[in-house]
Amino acid sequence: FDGSKVTLGELQHACGSVPFIAERRLVIVDGLLTRLESEGKEGTLSAWQKEYLEELTQYLKRLPETTRLIFVEDKSISESNPVHRLALADERGHVKEFKPPQGSELNRWIKERVSKKGGQINPAAVEELGAFVGNDLRLLDQEIEKLVVYVDQARPISEDDVRVLVSYVREANIFEMADALGQRDGQRAAKLLHQLLDEGKHPLALLGMIVRQFRIMIQVKELNERGLSQQDIAARLGLHRFVVKKAVRQA
């Protein structure tokens, strides 16, 4: 189920259905508890969130024995969340956090993933890929697949390969130029502009990109001041977390 729009009635109906050709019925809900978390600095829940959480918690206490209900969230849930508390207190409940790899663990994951796909990668390329794509493992896997196919096992993946193929690295130059313009660093902005033109970017396309980046910075700054995390901002604006991270620093 899509937790961003599932109703409690739909969830109860799915959980209450009798299993077919199996002893247990598995119901997976993605993002519901995140939807029921408070937003902003005030940390308060709306009336509908409180009502939904209260009714959901009461229903979970009488969840059929034949049903296994799993809540999948892309960020940690507050320990004060009643569903979280119930899962810890009830013997039928279970909480498991899968933290994405960071730093050296992320680099090791990238190298192992490349190896599993039959390729090799230089240490500098590992650093470049991890720095710009981040620890979004699904996206990293897609980018690694492209890079492995690109070099076709003829040689290890290089830093230049990452810069050529990975879209977030190319977009980083636009941010750098926008940053230079914002800091009135004409020399650096001009250097980056010529670099982008040499890469074949059309002047009008560059203008559009600059306008887009400043619009993103304004939107990110507004949401950041409202207390939203970078992950929440990325989800709200439909942007990659790397883009949001850069925009927060520039704004």
Automatic annotation (TrEMBL):
It is an enzyme of class 2 (transferase). Residues 2-89 form the DNA polymerase III delta N-terminal domain. SUPFAM superfamilies: P-loop containing nucleoside triphosphate hydrolases (SSF52540), post-AAA+ oligomerization domain-like (SSF48019). Gene3D superfamilies: 1.10.8.60, 1.20.272.10, P-loop containing nucleotide triphosphate hydrolases. GO terms for molecular function: DNA binding; DNA-directed DNA polymerase activity. Keywords: DNA replication, DNA-directed DNA polymerase, Nucleotidyltransferase, Transferase. Residues 171-251 form the DNA polymerase III delta subunit-like C-terminal domain. It catalyses: DNA(n) + a 2'-deoxyribonucleoside 5'-triphosphate = DNA(n+1) + diphosphate. PANTHER family: DNA POLYMERASE III SUBUNIT DELTA. This is DNA polymerase III subunit delta. It comes from marine sediment metagenome.
